[in-house]
Amino acid sequence: MDIAALAARAPVIPVLTVERLADALPLARALVKGGLPVLEITFRTGMAVEALAAIAREVPGAIVGAGTVLDERQLRQAIDAGARFGVSPGCTAALAQAVKASGLPFLPGVQTVSDALAARERGFSVLKFFPADTAGGPGWLKAVAAPLAGLRFCPTGGIGIETAPAYLALPNVACVGGSWVAPRDAVAAGDWLRIEHLASQAAALKRS
């Protein structure tokens, strides 16, 4: 499954920072049950690799990937843990080369038109626009739609249930990434029903 097919599975990719390994499985199950099967586990905590591996192994229906992949070492960790895709806030030449060699579906991060052109030259056609809210938001995406025809985006960063529809209404937006579907307080409290409800709301969002 390529990154475009993954992006088409649901309008929102949950961006998850797992602090406790015990939270990984019930969190993933709640999100999948709510209709969001594509899950990004950010490599920002010491639990990330173990959490990703556990979800990949034990949650049927979850399509789990690694986020905040910064270099080839982390890319290899993600693949070894069972990641089915990877995401980065940016994309260096070395990382792009490693990604291409690995064959892992990948969402490289961009913030400028030059970033997007560089990613396009490296063979990527679906890009993470990050941080979306501070880098221009829907206005930026509207402005680049014509000159960057053929590229599609997954805006991530500062997006919530209130602002997601403005992004998803744009033809060059494939999906959005967001952490609002798994609020830190709900995870800490083990309130999986609340997270399932938030996932259901997100899964019901309309795309252009």
Description:
The chain is α/β, with parallel strands linked by helices and 208 residues long. The chain has one domain: TIM Barrel, CATH 3.20.20.70. It is built from ten helices and nine strands. It has a four-stranded parallel sheet. Helix 7 links the parallel strand 7 and strand 8. Helix 2 crosses helix 10. The longest helix is centred in the first third of the chain and has 13 residues. The radius of gyration is 16 Å and the shape is globular. The model has no long low-confidence stretch (mean pLDDT 97).
Number of helices: 10
CATH architecture: Alpha-Beta Barrel
Major beta-sheet overview:
4 strands, parallel
User: Radius of gyration over alpha carbons?
Assistant: 16 Å
Q: H/E series, N to C?
A: HEHEHEHEHEEHEHEHEHH
Number of domains: 1
If strands are numbered along the chain, what order do they take across the biggest sheet?
3-2-1-9
Structural class: alpha/beta
Strand content: 15-25%
List the uncertain runs. none
The 3D shape can be described as globular
Cα(first) to Cα(last) distance is: 22 Å
Output the CATH topology. TIM Barrel
Round the mean pLDDT to the nearest integer and report it.
Answer: 97
CATH superfamily: Aldolase class I
CATH class placement? Alpha Beta
The total strand number stands at 9
- Helix proportion of residues, in percent? 40-55%
